[in-house]
Design brief:
CATH superfamily: Phosphoenolpyruvate-binding domains
Largest sheet: 8 strands, parallel, barrel
Number of strands: 8
Low-confidence stretches: none
CATH architecture: Alpha-Beta Barrel
Radius of gyration: 21 Å
Mean pLDDT: 97
Bound molecules: 3-methyl-2-oxobutanoic acid
Number of helices: 11
CATH topology: TIM Barrel
Number of domains: 1
CATH class: Alpha Beta
Strand content: 5-15%
Helix content: 40-55%
Strand order of the largest sheet: 1-2-3-4-5-6-7-8
Shape: globular
Length: 274
């Protein structure tokens, strides 16, 4: 079945989609132009992810993203999206110090950017912060499994939930649900466990590297559409080759400038007053 059936996607549509067996599509977006296109394509959820650190700013990890940087991108995406629900990541350091800090950051995003929800990483250990943010009236998406902001603590981009990690993953999922999140991202976990958790939870699961048994899927758009020409993870399916297309286009432009064929007369102004 198609994704969420709504003219404007709200948090309540996520539970409805799960009940009706409709799968939810999600993509990252960091700017107005892609948000407009993905929204028009019917993507249900646009995430202004702190993966911007990697695919926008060219940084090694997501750890250096700031609230100010996230807020600029979130404002652009929220203003452009007409239908999709727009969610922003709480960046590293903006919610772990205390529950008060978590609420303050979430409230700031809601006041300043126009997003409809925030996402934060962590399970059992973040349940208190999620509860406080939800109590403040801010919808929350949880994020468990591989959590990039903890990549040093986790020892790199390592698959989570295997073996003894299975029970921890379940406990994290239940804690996030119990705390009031309306959805939870499961990143880089075995498909079988993600499907089990999806069946156990009332709230929606959105997978990235979590197999086909989750309620929805999310990908980083530069990976999915080939703008990222570097190595991508096994779970990425490439739907376009924008990197190669852009390379060709840029080469053609450079050649046209070099040989003087750009601009031509139609691309130039004449002095109509003469
Ligand atoms: O920052 C991000 O893009 C994310 C998704 C990969 C889920 O958190």
């Amino acid at each position: 079945m198609n994704g969420i059936d709504a003219a404007r996607v709200r948090t309540r549509h996520f539970a409805q989609a799960k009940a009706e067996g409709r799968r939810i599509s999600a993509l990252t977006s960091y700017d107005a132009l892609t948000a407009t296109i993905f929204d028009e394509a019917g993507i249900d959820l646009l995430l202004v992810g702190d993966s911007a650190a990697n695919v926008v700013y060219g940084r090694e990890t997501t750890l250096s993203m700031t609230v100010d940087e996230m807020a600029v991108m979130a404002t652009a995406v929220a203003a452009a999206a007409q239908r999709a629900l727009v969610c922003v990541d709480l960046p590293f350091g903006s919610y772990e110090v205390s529950e008060e800090q978590a609420v303050a950051t979430a409230v700031r995003f809601m006041q300043e950017t126009g997003v409809a929800a925030v996402k934060l990483e962590g399970g059992v250990e973040r349940a208190g912060a999620i509860r406080r943010i939800v109590d403040a009236g801010v919808p929350v998406i949880g994020h468990i499994g591989f959590t990039p902001q903890s990549e040093h603590a986790l020892g790199g981009a390592v698959i989570q939930g295997r073996g003894a990690g299975r029970e921890k993953l379940r406990a994290d999922a239940l804690a996030v649900q119990e705390a009031g999140a309306f959805a939870v991202v499961l990143e880089m976990v075995p498909a079988e466990i993600a499907a089990e958790i999806t069946a156990e939870l009332d709230v929606v699961t959105i997978g990235i590297g979590a197999g086909d048994g989750t309620d929805g899927q999310i990908l980083v758009w530069q990976d999915a559409f080939g703008l990222n020409r570097g190595r991508t993870a096994r779970f990425v399916r490439q739907y376009a080759d924008l990197g190669e297309q852009l390379l060709d286009a840029a080469k053609n432009y450079a050649a046209d400038v070099a040989d003087g064929s750009f601009p031509d007369e139609a691309e130039s102004y004449e002095d109509t007053a003469r």
